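Quick log. Single chain, no ligands specified.
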Amino acid sequence: MKNNDLLVEKYGPVLALTLNRPESLNAFSPDMILGLMEALVEAKIDSDIQVIVLSGAGRAFSAGGDVKTMGKADGNQVYEHIGKLNELILMMKNLEKPIIAAVHGFSAGAGFNLALACDIILAAEDSKFALSFSKVGLVSDGGGSYFLPRLIGPHLAKQFFFSAEPIPAQRLYQLGVINSLFPAERLQEEATKRALSLAQGPAMAFGKQKKLIEHSFTSTLEEILEEERLTQVLMVQTEDHKEGVAAFKEKRKPAFKGR
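-> predicted structure:
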């Protein structure tokens, strides 16, 4: 299905997804959300795809909700729209493949939360973020109320939500929200390098580790210890584990195959 609101490109083991509504700073549209969901389904079933990179076209990563359409939808329409957004966020968190956000320009509201739903955030040094919901009398959607307090604590999260103040990327980097900062002109190149580097790793191990970390937020220590044990029983039987051990003994770089 052709989708003008999302550009999809596959290069080797990397699936590049580009939000493509630059005239509206990549504000969300139903087609964009649907396109992202379809792309993640494809990434799940395509064993050649190891890593996903999410970025935005034009001057910004994403402004989140489209202000031009706000105030026109009734409660039922909002319920359905956010339901689709919720499906997307859950698909991102449940996908056992790394998702890298490459953020430039401005990332606001649910656009910020979309980046938070990724596994790694790379950002341009001059980029800015904002949880701008309160400016239009709304609360967070897209999972920000879940993700951000777990990263920076409830007090600072409340400050950012209440004030809707722009947050420089440097501050979020210092807080541990952003993994790495780069000059804007190098961001896409660095995101591609990071993705290709991850793609050479043990894909199955990465996916299972992502799952364990996600489960840790809603599990007891006893439950995670048992899940680690059961997962490790599977992992020691994989080709990648055998290759990793052989490469270590032979003092060479392992050639993982994701099996």
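The chain is about 45% helix and 15% strand.
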